[in-house]
Amino acid sequence: MAERKYEKYVISRPMLTTELAHHDFAEVKGLTFPDEVYLNKELLPEAGHWLDISWIWEIPSPPGLLGAHAHPFTEIVLFIGSNHRDSSDFGGLLEWWMGEGDEAERYLIDKTTLIYVPKGLVHGPMNFLRVDRPILNIAIGLNTGEYL
């Protein structure tokens, strides 16, 4: 059977990786590993973006995931609670930092939340303080160019 014209745009098998955006989670426990990447230059070279999906089912160890860092592209980070009857019910508590030094701001996330991180903005670490039930984390890198 001939290849379908648009088949390359339907990605149903993720690329599994131990490192995404130069964050190595090989020693982290309590979250999906390896990462499930559904979109990047390897899967679809013309996309120029990446999309990573992971589940957090317990407080990750070691704490302080990612540390403070910045990317040369804009990132969208979404944390979704797994209560199918109430999409705002997060089922945990997450500490998220944005900015650096004296300008750093701490955010406590206790409901489903999207975080827009402009290119170059220092963010992290993120610390899960409580995980009552699985939390879905979706990260999207926009216009990543040659970075990934």
Task: Walk me through the structure.
The chain is mainly β. 0% of the residues lie in helices and 50% in strands. The strands form 3 sheets. Strands 1, 4, 5, 6, 7, 10 and 12 form a 7-stranded antiparallel beta sheet that branches. The protein has a 3-stranded antiparallel beta sheet with strand order 9-8-11, with no helix packed on it. Strand 8 and strand 9 form a beta hairpin. The relative contact order is 0.25.
What would the keywords be for this entry?
three-stranded antiparallel sheet, seven-stranded antiparallel sheet, mainly beta, globular, 0% helix, single chain, 148 residues, 12 strands
Q: Outline, from the CA principal axes?
A: globular
Uncertain segments of ≥5 residues (pLDDT<50)?
none
Total strands: 12
Order of helices and strands: EEEEEEEEEEEE
Helix content: under 10%
Overall structural class, as computed from helix and strand content, comes to mainly beta
Work out the radius of gyration. 16 Å
Distance between the termini: 33 Å
Beta content comes to over 45%
Q: Which whole number gives the mean pLDDT? A: 85
Largest sheet: 7 strands, antiparallel
List the total number of helices. Answer: 0
Summarize the structure.
With 148 residues, this protein is an all-beta fold. The protein has strands at residues 15-17, 19-20, 23-24, 29-31, 35-39, 50-61, 74-81, 89-98, 105-111, 113-117, 123-131, 135-142.
Topology overview:
Layout lengths: L14 E3 L1 E2 L2 E2 L4 E3 L3 E5 L10 E12 L12 E8 L7 E10 L6 E7 L1 E5 L5 E9 L3 E8 L6
Antiparallel strand pairs: 1-5, 2-3, 4-6, 5-6, 6-12, 7-10, 7-12, 8-9, 8-11
